[in-house]
Sequence to fold (228 residues):
Amino acid sequence: MHFTLPFQFVNSSLNRYVQPMKTRKYEMTRRAERKADTRQRIVKAVVALHREVGPARTTISAIAERAGVERLTVYRHFANDSAIYAACSAHFDTEVPPPDPSTWVGVADAADCVRTALLAFYDYYRRGEDMLAHIARDVHCLPELAAAAAPSVAFVATVRDGLLEKWEVDGTEHARLAAVLSHALRFDTWHSLARTESLEDADAADLMVALARAAAAPRITERDKKRR
Fold:
């Protein structure tokens, strides 16, 4: 014998299960959103403090106070300094985008290519000066910070190598030019030229290009001078 349940009965029975499931899903979504919002507030607090006082002087208590959370909440989201530095670095890159190699890789002339790259780097250093100055100060005493900064160091080295290839030099000239390009790309070099010597970025770039040209030029020895 087959019984057919009334539609109202079936619909009511399903609602008893479906409605709680919808409620739980909504609560889980809201909980995930609140968690993400809290994490974002903590990351923004870290970035702000690093820009103001630097990583070495940023405490968990200060982060918690700035983010409006408890210290334990900070630890729940970030288990250690490495996690904090990684999140801070990723967020900073969205606020202050790093130099884009596409702006200079297509420049054929070696000297012009170096100048274009330096202008991009110097603009980045100016935009992110507060953060970058504190990192340069603290990186040698914080191993976790050094590890977080390693990709940036590798990026600069890759850019240096790409610029170096365009000059087609070898031997002594290659070594000298490599040293000049490494020096020119450093934040400390820009800071010295722009802040201590008060040069505009274009003038600083021109000065470094002139130094690169001198480094790449064949070296005149005493024997060469006598031959003349």
Notes: The radius of gyration is 28 Å. The chain is about 75% helix and 0% strand. Residues 96-223 form one domain. The chain has a mean pLDDT of 90.
